[in-house]
Amino acid sequence: MGKTPRIRVIGAGVAGLTVAFEFARAGCPVELIERRAGPGLGCSHFAGGMLAPWCEAESAEQLIVDLGVESLKFWTQTAALAQRCGSLVLAPARDQPELTRFARRTSGFERLDAEGIAALEPDLAGRFEQALFFTDEAHLDPRAAMAALAARLQEFKNVALRYGAEAKPSRDKDADWTIDCRGFDGRDALPDLRGVRGEMLVLATSEIRLARPVRLIHPRHPVYIVPRGDGRFMIGATMIESDAPGPVTARAMLELLGAAYAVHPAFAEAEIIETAAGVRPAFADNLPRIRCEDRRIYVNGLFRHGFLVAPALARRVVDIVLEGAHFPEVMDADPGERQSA
Amino acid sequence: MDELSLYGVTLASRLLVGTAQYPSPAILATAIKAAKAEVVTVSLRRESGAGRAGENFWALIRELGVRVLPNTAGCRTVKEAVTTAQMAREVFDTSWIKLEVIGEEDTLQPDVFGLVEAAAILARDGFQVFPYTTEDLVVAEKLLGAGCEVLMPWGAPIGSGRGLNNPYGLKALRAHFPGTPLVIDAGIGAPSHAAAAMELGYDAILLNTAIAKAGDPVAMARAFALAVEAGRLGFRADPMQPRDMAAPSTPVIGRPFSDLARA
User: Fold this and answer.
1) Superfamily, domain A87-135+194-282
2) What is the pLDDT of residues B93-125, one digit of tens each?
């Protein structure tokens, strides 16, 4: 196959785009195929864009933290698409024990009192007594980031982008390697993949300014408010064991709006400019996998950690293809493990 | 053998666990094994969204090979609870239902009036109802009258982890219904709470958050299994009665030394 294998990437969500980008940088001929009309229109479209590996340690395994820290460098330096302003974790007074628990489960934060919160986010002055400030975390606008990545891919001479196209298995032979990054659409080949529904909404208000994502401790969902600029705020996201893609439910809306209102009552006056639901692809342990079958590599199961871990996975895929590397932390030891996973 | 019987089903384990809020289904599965639980409770509303779209998660639960006790968590009216129970019977193919009718938002305490009404409707419809109730004796009487054969009083509000808020009331309930299986449902935070409830003579413990939200859910599941077993063994072994004064285990006739000390 020579030194520069021809790569076919299926799916232009955050996984496919970062994989294509890393192969393009490595000088391989890349064909990126997406059945939708453009990049980033699947589940990545509804992502929060929180790059918060230290926060995630509250409920995720160390692997997610490690991959997340590794990926931060990609988003803040290599691609330079993220802002590094840290993130703030708040709890209503009655949920203070939960904040204590959150602090016990995580690291990389400073404790702030009311004054500290006001200094960081003036609009939240007087609203909360305590917060955790995760200083090194970052955030990005997923839609803008994916559009920017796609635009950069376009500039590579060795890259062909094909939107609105089906990836026919008969054309596998046109490439040396096929990298399947289809997310939940790829479940036909990955029977142990399940969908976890997430609901989000976008509010617009000029009454509040936030410089960084705010995460509110909530008994059922990790709810966060991510500033998107221009007075827009993404509020997400529910986690429901369901693969139904339909419209957001009233219950989800109530919970998300309730959380936003708890952070600042001015959100009650905001306009709701978007509501949407996406289906996250996840394996039973909610950890991502790179699964190799002959010359086809599946990158899937990114769950609620797509932007957080995709660049680190993409790097690994390139090393697997070009150097025959093996990464036990994200690869099954043997195909049989899949059943017990 | 000291077995538990719930609606004619014999169980060796006295720990029933919930399936919500775990970091992942894989950890849930391992924790249930560590808890040696034979019954898990599953919320139809919370985990499914609309229709049967939660099939994948339910399939994971079925693969555990344990008995499913579907619940009506989050239901606030009789009608809602009855409809959810009927859906659950279809999805999980069981007539068991853990009946929750929530009456108050802050404490999530049961609406006992709605609970009795819904229990009667469901029992008439062939359900075997496990009502989530308070320790109130009169409500308990009415639930039994409505056809319930198991009662599930709370230890403390759902998710609060406060343990047994009213040990006196729980003792009274136990004494009042010696032949009815009584399961503490909700409020358990630490293994010692579970052991304490078992020492009161309760038949079993149902809990979710204390395991699911522990830093290490699998280790905590094992801790609860041991605590429930310890509490049960202790109860059956007829514990000594507490007393106000020390009772030395060796005779102290004449108390010579204490007299000397006083002199």
Assistant:
1) D-Amino Acid Oxidase, subunit A, domain 2 (3.30.9.10)
2) 899 999 999 988 778 899 999 999 999 999 999
CATH number of A7-46+141-192+285-340: 3.50.50.60
Quick one: tokens of A102?
């959150």
Q: Which ipTM did the prediction report? A: 0.74
Closest to B200 (Cα-Cα) out of B240, B168, B157: B168
Structural contact between residues A82 and A138, judged by C-beta atoms closer than 8 angstroms: yes
User: Would you list which residues of chain B are within 8 Å, Cβ to Cβ, of chain A?
Assistant: 21, 23-27, 29, 46-51, 53-57, 60, 159, 213, 215
Domain ranges of chain A: 7-46+141-192+285-340, 87-135+194-282
pTM of the model: 0.83
Instruction: Check: CB of residue B98 under 8 Å from CB of residue B71.
Output: yes
Give contacts of A101 with chain B, Cβ < 8 Å.
Answer: 213
